[in-house]
Amino acid sequence: GENVEQHPSTLSVQEGDSAVIKCTYSDSASNYFPWYKQELGKGPQLIIDIRSNVGEKKDQRIAVTLNKTAKHFSLHITETQPEDSAVYFCAASIRSTGGFKTIFGAGTRLFVKA
Amino acid sequence: DAMVIQNPRYQVTQFGKPVTLSCSQTLNHNVMYWYQQKSSQAPKLLFHYYDKDFNNEADTPDNFQSRRPNTSFCFLDIRSPGLGDAAMYLCATSRDYVYEQYFGPGTRLTVT
């Protein structure tokens, strides 16, 4: 079935270092790839997204790259800060009965040490 | 300003006692989703509405039902909660498919 794999499950970095989270997807028809950040006790919040007609997108310290041939995409956070500590979910949209749905990866818990 | 509101934030119910969770949105989005999220896991889609059209996930138990009386409101009904239904329930909206989803803060359900 449709699947999104996410690695690593836990990532610990020093403040100021970069963090990279990688995801792969199985449905070659997927065309929308959002990344969500979830802080403790809150709902997920979109931090960046990319569509299949683009290979890379950047927003300040956050960037996402997409390789459609290999069916993988990555999140890059540069100059990490303690407030970046959270759980990050990658996701991919797939066609489903009745429309589309979003499949989430298992999540990466990011710790940024001050 | 809150755009997706969930009530209550915390709900305690007894085993087998029906419970209703509510979600409202001020975004006028077409799509409303209900997710179940258990500790340290990804959100799992239960069902969604596109406008008035209901779309159930194949693996969502019959115990879970939903109503969307108008654009702004959507309800999650759990007819006979079991201990395994204890989780965070997240409501989300999007203006259409394949667009950003806006999540509410969630309702944490405890089953005693």
Question: What's the helix count of chain B?
Answer: 0
Major sheet details of chain A: 6 strands, mixed
The pair of chains with the biggest contact is: A-B, 24 and 23 residues
Order of helices and strands of chain B: EEEEEEEEEEE
Shape of chain B: globular
Distance between the termini of chain A: 41 Å
List low-pLDDT spans of chain B: none
Decide which structural class fits the backbone of chain A.
mainly beta
Q: Which percent range describes the beta-strand content of chain A?
A: over 45%
Q: How many beta-strand runs of chain A?
A: 11
Taking all residues together, what is the mean pLDDT of chain B?
Answer: 95
Q: Name the shape of chain A in a single word.
A: globular
Low-confidence stretches of chain A: none
Radius of gyration of chain A: 14 Å
Instruction: Please state the oligomeric state of the protein chains shown.
Output: heterodimer
Q: Which class of secondary structure composition applies to the elements of chain B?
A: mainly beta
What gyration radius of chain B follows from the Cα positions, in whole Å?
A: 13 Å
| Approximate helicity band of chain B | under 10%
**What is the N-to-C order of secondary-structure elements of chain A (H for helix, E for strand)?**
EEEEEEEEEEE
Strand content of chain B: over 45%
Question: What does this protein look like?
Answer:
The complex is a heterodimer of chains A (114) and B (112). In chain A, a hairpin with a 4-residue loop joins strand 7 (62-67) and strand 8. Chain A has strands at 4-7, 10-14, 19-25, 32-38, 45-51, 56-59, 62-67, 72-77, 86-96, 99-104, 108-113. By secondary structure, chain A is an all-beta fold. In chain A, the strands form two sheets. In chain A, strands 2, 4, 5, 9, 10 and 11 form a six-stranded mixed β-sheet that branches. Chain A has a five-stranded antiparallel β-sheet with strand order 1-3-8-7-6, with no helix packed on it. Helix content of chain A is 0%, strand content 61%. Chain B has 112 residues and is mainly beta. Chain B is 0% helix and 52% strand. Chain B has strands at 4-7, 10-13, 19-25, 31-37, 44-50, 53-56, 64-67, 73-78, 87-94, 102-103, 107-111. The radius of gyration of chain B is 13 Å and the shape is globular. Chain B starts with a strand and ends with a strand. The model of chain B has no long low-confidence stretch (mean pLDDT 95).
